[in-house]
Fold these 2 entries.
Entry 1:
Amino acid sequence: MHTHIYISLLTQSNSLSLTLRQIRRSSYHDVVRVSEIENALDIRGVQTYVINSARVLFLNERPQPKNSSHGAASSTPKTMSYFCETCCRTLLDPFRFCSLGCKVEGMRKNKEEEEERLRKERQQETHKGTHPPTHTSNSRRRKGIPHRAPFAS
């Protein structure tokens, strides 16, 4: 996942002068401090974590733990599970995405789905007037007018 390609999708302003102060490594994953990125990018809906007393978010999608299964019953039935909309990773809180990369991917998919929906709507509107009207009555009846035998007198 190349987060930097889609970074312009998430910028709150149209300025292209986006500089991150420092990308850190945490458990072999790239993270960035929320305080350094929240003014430059829209990070709403992305799960944040506290690592070494700093609130951070992951830049790229993280692999699933080997022993987890999406949708499995939890050990405590009262707890509610939340999942990343892109990679289905379990989240701790009611966020939509586990990382900035997943948010970018989710936004890209939503944009593509919306464009496809609009394209189909436009296509249906243009074809509405071009179809010949369908006949509701049967054009070839199976039976004609019933003929009775003449009365014998």
Entry 2:
Amino acid sequence: MTIDRMPAAVFDDDQAAHLVVYTSAPDALRDDYGGASYTYRFSQIELPAGDLPPTLRITEHQPVPVNEDQIPGRSRDEKLKLDPITTDDPRAAWTLIDLPSDQKKAAIEALCAEFAHLDAYWAAPSGAKTPLSDGLNGTQIDIAEDWPNTRVDVSFAHTYYPEGRLRRTFRVFDNAGRITPAEYASIHLMEDLDTRDLPPITNAHNNILDI
């Protein structure tokens, strides 16, 4: 399914399923030391019952502005729910689990999708698209190695290193073969780029700077 805004969260309540999206790119307040703080705007819609459409346009579903604290799991006052793990729980083992092939494929595709549109990541209410971070373009996604060592390499051109490319690498699975969560990985990348929380260019090798 294609969504015309970047998803932030999905949750169920007693009435329906809901989708929360980033309304537009965040506002960045920069300080005198090269840092920045971000203000994100969110909109929430009620997802239609039954099969979801192939394309979901947020403005066609009565979006409601919401604050981050209203999103389940985001409130500072909300207590974290933990599932107890015992010593005989297979989720705690470091021996390889039996992960079906379709789940392996879905995990790789989901991580690739997280970075598939970095060149046109943010959508404004006008429909205009802007990159994840100013100065980013030419995104390339490469998949390397087999399960459980599969990794996704995300590289792109950026004004921080005009002579080469920046690259960030993600493990899709942990050492036990379980899917590694990559929630907000693209947002974390944006914040590192915008605040220049990056290694020195002298660390580059063969015109690639791993960040």
